[in-house]
Amino acid sequence: MTTRADSVTAFFDRYEAALLARDAKALASLYDVPSLILFPGRSVPVSEPAETEAFFASAFAQYEGVTSVEREVAVIAEAPHSVWTDVTWTFSSRPAERFCYQLVESGEGLRIAVLTPLTSPPG
Fold it and tell me: CA-to-CA distance for 13 and 64, rounded, in angstroms?
């Protein structure tokens, strides 16, 4: 039997593999539609998978030279239909990125419904 923790781990395994492969289409497939990206002072509603795909395609330059990823995932809340995770990503030896992902159940498994950047941990 697959647990919620197993599903979360499998989700971020797919996310990590797609990021390292620079596969914008695979990353976009991990976002629910509609979804919401909450940047400080700006909310970005996403209504089409192509929007997410285009964003990642344009952002890959910032990961130039990144060949490995480490992540720390903490489940911070759960509901029958969704789970909130606090995830810190470390890319090779570059500074970490930290996000809160609200993941929702879909017919294909978990998908990102809301993404919120968090303050990166010190160090």
Answer: 20
Q: Where are the domains of the chain?
A: 4-117
Q: What is the pLDDT of residue 36?
A: 95
Q: Provide Rg for the chain, Cα atoms.
A: 14
- Backbone dihedral angles phi then psi of residue 108, each to the nearest 5 degrees: -105, 10
The first and second tokens of residue 116, run together, are 């919120």
Per-chain mean pLDDT for the chain = 91
Tracing tokens 């968090």 back to the chain, one arrives at: 118
Query: Quick check: 97 and 88 in contact, CB under 8 A?
Result: yes
**pLDDT tens-digit map of 74-117:** 999 999 999 999 999 998 777 689 999 999 999 889 999 999 99
Angle 74-78-84 from CA coordinates, rounded to 5°: 50
Q: CATH number for the 4-117 domain, one of 3.40.50.2300, 3.40.50.150, 3.40.50.300, 3.10.450.50?
A: 3.10.450.50
**pTM of the predicted model as reported, rounded to 2 decimal places:** 0.90
